[in-house]
Amino acid sequence: MGSSNIDVFELTVPSRMEELSAVHDLVDKATRAFNLNEEIAHWIELAVSESAINAIQHGNGLDPSKEVFLRIAFDGKALEIIVEDQGGGFDLSDVPDPTDTENLMKPGGRGILIIKSFMDTVELTDGADGRSRLRMVKNFVGEQSPGS
Questions:
Q1: Distance from the CA of 63 to the CA of which of 53, 88, 98, 140 falls in 20 to 30 A?
Q2: Strands across the sheet with 78-85, in order?
Q3: How many of the other CB atoms lie within 10 Å of CB of 18?
């Protein structure tokens, strides 16, 4: 994401599930502006939705006084998505594998699995300002070009 020619879409919403429609609208605007094909746009929508739900529900505990920040940026080669909440964060390696036999009937971990299966990079960090930051990157090279 080092190019100076970067398209960016940003949104900050209170931690209420009703705000997911605004998140969906932002993703739709971004994927159209970036000329991403329908299949890629679907997977981006799914990754952003899962991360926003996690930020609202788990990170901020459905507390509407806390906010979720979303940033979607594209430089023509890579799509970077940042989702930040005001929660305490967690360790990605602590999320149980939902495909493990003992976890098949448990609801947790599926969103992270979906995100990791599509995105090339998934990083979770705690910011100095007390925010938890999920950074996801999808690289576009060769056959994966956005408009394909």
A1: 98
A2: 7-14, 67-74, 78-85, 132-139, 121-126
A3: 10
Confidence tier at 125 by pLDDT (50, 70, 90): confident
Query: Would residue 61 be called left, alpha or beta, if left means φ above 0 and alpha means ψ between -120 and 50 degrees?
Result: left
Which burial class, exposed, middle or buried, applies to 85 when counting CB atoms under 10 A from its CB (0-12, 13-18, 19+)? buried
Winning range, highest mean pLDDT, from 39-53, 81-95, 126-140:
39-53
Closest C-alpha among 19, 22, 43, 38 to residue 111: 43
CB-based contact 6:61 (threshold 8 Å): no
Which tokens belong to 137?
């990157």
Cα separations (Å) of 26 from 5, 93, 114? 20, 29, 20
Summarize the confidence of residues 66-70 as an average pLDDT: 96
